Amino acid sequence: ETGVTQTPRHLVMGMTNKKSLKCEQHLGHNAMYWYKQSAKKPLELMFVYNFKEQTENNSVPSRFSPECPNSSHLFLHLHTLQPEDSALYLCASSQPQGSSEAFFGQGTRLTVV
Amino acid sequence: GESVGLHLPTLSVQEGDNSIINCAYSNSASDYFIWYKQESGKGPQFIIDIRSNMDKRQGQRVTVLLNKTVKHLSLQIAATQPGDSAVYFCAENKGNQGGKLIFGQGTELSVKP
Question: Could B97 and A92 be called an inter-chain contact, meaning their C-beta atoms sit closer than 8 Å?
């Protein structure tokens, strides 16, 4: 238990569906992140939120839409995804300053059919 | 561009032996490096970190070595146990924020009983 909880753990969705991934942290952190982990590839940073404000979007397609209503919750809204978007989506949290350890959730295994 | 990579995708060791996992990075301006362990079905878990003003740091059964001259990072695991079987990633802290990380490809460590 890392203090970062993601739901659902597994998700299968069609290319025309709309779904959302949820992340919640109980660590009192003020920064939250979405990462994508595809098979045989390194983790890739997608979005960064500091104090509920998005501070980084690493050229992520608009079919991925993040939302951070407060410092403890982070969502990733999905719509009209492609099969190549199938991956493990990981949420992390930390304090915003450097050298602050990042804690990861267990991830949501997403399959787009 | 910036990248953090690992030399070998897989490593197999005998239980009780020492393991050495290597990583090369390309951004000489990086000042903070982290090793993560990822077990099957779980998110990455922090193992140990090191700042660029150090060349060695020890934890419980683990040691990280940093050679800035050749931009090389290594993780040594003493007396490797079956529970150490996992994928190990090195990561570089990006932009002086704890959770903004550039990950390497990963090395899968298998421990034979």
Answer: no
Compute the count of residue pairs across chains A and B with CB atoms less than 8 Å apart. 80
Q: Which of B31, B93, B97 sits opposite A96 (nearest CB)?
A: B97
E strands in B2-105: 4-6, 10-14, 19-25, 32-38, 45-51, 56-58, 62-67, 72-77, 86-93, 101-103
**Whose CA is closest to B94, among B33, B6, B7?**
B33
Tell me the average confidence (pLDDT) per consecutive run of 10 residues in chain B, 113 residues long. 61 96 86 93 93 94 95 96 96 81 92 93
Question: Alpha-carbon distance A97 to B44, whole Å?
Answer: 20
Interchain contact, A31 vs B99, CB within 8 Å: yes
